[in-house]
Design a protein that fits this description.
By secondary structure, this protein is an alpha+beta fold. Helix content is about 60%, strand content about 15%. A hairpin with a 2-residue loop joins β4 and β5. α1 crosses α3 (about 55-65). The longest helix has about 35 residues, at about 130-165. It starts with a helix and ends in a 9-residue tail after the last helix.
Length: about 200
């Protein structure tokens, strides 16, 4: 009973660490130098990722009944978990990148948004851009059409402003033209009155 009581705080701690986790990567850290381990922890911390080393039996208990239960078969040998509650792909990206210069760091498996991935799958997940980068790309793609639309509207407005002067001149010319032609139209009326004189009767 005493052993169970001693284990419970650790199990509760693990449960708290993985609570609400979006992405979890399980690794074997054997072979890393102290300097490499320090650098890995630093990079993970800067990315907002929690990195912990626990006994496999403790993680086994904590993972049961959760989305991380699929990781239990991979709990062999020394194990550490990298957990992110905000960016699902962050643990995979940081660890896979770090492992390129530290091949002794072995990927075991991971769970990303409730889906289990083996080591190869985690390497593929690592290629997915981060949340901030995706948001930045989305905003960029949204702003581009708006900017283009504004540019087109501006060009139309500029062309429209220049084109309004010509119709105004044409209207002015049209108003003046009838005034000049008016005398020419009255001439026939005068000619038509001439035959109206009567011939004197004999």
């Amino acid at each position: 009973m005493a052993k169970v009581e001693l284990k419970k705080p650790v199990i509760d701690e693990i449960s708290e660490v993985v609570k609400g986790a979006q992405g979890v990567v399980l690794v074997d850290y054997r072979g890393l130098t102290v300097e490499q381990d320090t650098q890995l922890r630093k990079q993970l911390r800067e990315a907002g990722i929690t990195y912990k080393v626990y006994k496999n039996t403790m993680m086994n208990f904590a993972f049961k009944g959760t989305d991380l239960e699929a990781l239990i078969p991979h709990l062999e040998g020394p194990s550490a978990i990298a957990v992110s509650t905000e960016d699902a792909t962050a643990p995979a990206r940081v660890i896979v990148k770090f492992a390129k210069d530290a091949p002794k760091l072995e990927l075991k498996a991971g769970v990303v948004e409730g889906v289990l991935y083996d080591a190869k799958g985690i390497a593929e997940v690592a290629k997915i851009p981060g949340r901030e980068e995706l948001i930045s790309r989305l905003l960029g793609s949204l702003q581009s059409p708006v900017a283009n639309f504004a540019r087109v509207i501006n060009q139309i407005a500029e062309k429209g402003g220049a084109g309004e002067a010509a119709p105004a001149k044409e209207e002015a010319a049209a108003e003046e033209a009838p005034a000049a032609e008016a005398p020419a139209e009255e001439a026939p009326a005068a000619e038509a009155e001439a035959p109206a004189e009567e011939t004197p009767a004999e």
